[in-house]
Specification:
Strand order of the largest sheet: 1-2-3-4
Strand content: over 45%
CATH topology of the largest domain: Thrombin, subunit H
Distance between the termini: 31 Å
Order of helices and strands: EEEEEEEEEEEEEEE
CATH architecture of the largest domain: Beta Barrel
Helix content: under 10%
């Protein structure tokens, strides 16, 4: 798995034991971020200030890109299979994770913030689709897909949310 760093030509690539950041123009690695363990997912914050990984040990590891100092959030009861940054980009340090209302009834499989927004969509193991503005306490169930959701995607203007399931179904929610 990999992801592009915003506003530059660097590709972040997962490998056993951490990440390697490649400058595509120079065709060579520019940074190696070492970590004991297997990386399952990569999420880069919108402004590129943080890179986070979901790891095999049920933890989230992150690096501050200005200094490459790292930290870890652990203690999750299950593997972290999805991560997303909100548009405020405050960083994870000294913050309590946001609790998504409506996610307590089953394992959340996918999480995705809308572009340039505090609106977050999330989907559970059973296929329930929920949307919540994380600055507020209300959440809204927008659909039931009947099978595990495998991925989410917003249109760039955040008017439509797409969800795919393990059975191959693609659904659209919104305008």
């Amino acid at each position: 798995m990999n992801d592009w760093r915003p506003d530059n030509n660097e590709l972040v690539v997962a490998r056993y034991g951490g990440l390697t950041i490649w400058d595509i123009r120079k065709e060579k690695p520019v940074e190696s971020l070492n970590y004991r363990g297997s990386v399952l997912r990569i999420a880069i914050c919108p402004r590129g200030r943080y890179i986070a990984t979901a790891d095999q040990n049920s933890a989230v590891h992150f690096w501050r890109t200005e200094t490459w100092l790292d930290a870890e959030m652990s203690g999750y009861p299950h593997l972290v299979t999805s991560m997303s940054w909100d548009c405020s980009d405050p960083g994870p340090e000294d913050r309590t994770p946001t609790f998504l209302k409506g996610s307590e009834d089953c394992l959340t499989r996918c999480v995705l913030f809308a572009p340039n927004s505090t609106l977050c969509a999330f989907a559970g193991e059973a296929g329930g689709m929920t949307v919540q503005d994380v600055t507020k306490t209300e959440s809204y169930r927008i659909g039931e897909l009947g099978s595990p959701v495998t991925s989410l995607a917003w249109l760039p203007d955040a008017t439509v949310l797409f969800a795919s399931t393990s059975t191959g179904t693609l659904s659209a929610f919104g305008e």
